[in-house]
Amino acid sequence: MIGSKPSPIGDGFDEKFDVLAHGLKTVMGAYTPKPLAQTAGISYGLFLDYAFLEFQKPAVSFEIIGDDFVVDVTTIKTRGLEVYKGINQFAKEVTVFNDGDVTPTKPSCGD
Q: pTM for the whole thing?
């Protein structure tokens, strides 16, 4: 689902998003919405929608666990390694999404 379209996107994009999601789950685990995410309602017109609708490219966002929507920074749990793994895997999966090869032409920072 993208934006306000509850039906499949079509043109092979649904399958590409399924592959991308599976790749992210391999490094980050299955996503389980927390109570706030489940009850806050679906948001439309976000950057993720714009990126796909304008460029047919996926985008990523992060949900940070906290006691409220706006909290003191000291109450946010540190998740650096999870974020690194997610961004790194997202980059690989987007390459596949765009029909590219994930084999780098030169080594990167030891990854």
A: 0.64
